[in-house]
Write a structure and sequence with these properties.
170 residues; mainly alpha; Rna Polymerase Sigma Factor, Chain: A; Arc Repressor Mutant, subunit A; 8 helices; 79% helix; elongated
Length: 170
Amino acid sequence: MNWDRVWNEHRIDLYAYIYRRVRNSFDAEDMLQETFLKAFDSIRKRRAPPDNMAAFLKTVSRNLIIDQFRKKKRRPLPYPLEAALAHVSRDTVEDVVIRTELFAEMHAVIQTFPMHGRLIIEYRFFDDLSIKETASRMRASETAIRSLQFRITRKMRDRLLFCANTESKG
């Protein structure tokens, strides 16, 4: 197996995949290298390369990301269901790809919001905090949090529908 070729073919996409989840270039670079080390070790033990190297490398990196977040006792922010669904679901590969792309689109939309909007999404939907707890953390009234949450979720829905409509026409 030519590891230089594997590195050159997959490192950029794999780095982007990892970076979108850890949101830190240093951690992403470390995990990229660790992914290749674990993949090399795994393939050496199996003595046969996987049929789909890109999928294999993403699985290795996803497991490393999950392990890192477990160590930090927190879950990955943008994709809390992705890892669980990949192990539990009986979905087809196409279903998993579509779901992953939807999560990526949602993440991209969330990143366009101002910081207070991203915080509301994080607190309410990923940390599962109540309106009252979110208001306390953000030093705002519960009414303000409800109003902002409504506007943000409406914008997210509208942008995702717009993206879906433009893709179906293209």
